[in-house]
Design a protein that fits this description.
CATH superfamily: Glutaredoxin
Oligomer: single chain
Order of helices and strands: EHEHHHEEH
Protein name: Arsenate reductase
CATH class: Alpha Beta
Helix content: 25-40%
Strand content: 5-15%
CATH topology: Glutaredoxin
Number of strands: 4
Structural class: alpha+beta
Pfam families: ArsC
Family: Belongs to the ArsC family.
Number of helices: 5
Keywords: Oxidoreductase
Largest sheet: 4 strands, mixed
Number of domains: 1
Length: about 120
């Protein structure tokens, strides 16, 4: 199990605290420093069953600079979104937990963290 976090994020700190309290075996990836490649983002999206725009923080300043709200959300634009997430990792929604069963969750709630724990953590 791996969790992508920004240590400055309260939701990330809460998720890590819950994982620790449950005795979970996991690794931490500080994705702002250890930036995921487009391939890694594609793999996580597949595990999440989501599209890149579903995990994009559109309120971030860089999102506004890029005009992301106006970008098409279709198959033809998917790669453009993935590249933007890789080039600007601050845009990636957090925390993301990749579970041992091959799935992943955006763990912004205690329920989502517990869901990941129940998937073979």
């Amino acid at each position: 199990m791996e969790i992508w976090i920004n240590p400055a994020c309260s939701k990330c700190r809460g998720a890590v605290s819950l994982l620790d309290a449950e005795g979970a075996d996991y690794t931490v990836r500080r994705y702002l420093e250890d930036v995921p490649s487009p391939e890694e983002i594609r793999a996580v999206l597949d595990r999440l069953g989501l599209e890149p725009w579903d995990i994009t923080r559109t309120q971030e300043a860089v999102a506004k600079e890029l005009g992301l709200k106006e970008w098409p959300r279709d198959a033809g634009s998917r790669e453009r979104w993935i590249v933007a997430l890789s080039e600007h990792p601050k845009l990636i929604q957090r925390p993301i937990i990749t579970a041992d069963d091959g799935t992943a969750v955006v763990a912004r709630s205690e329920e989502a963290v517990r869901d990941a724990l129940g998937r073979g953590a």
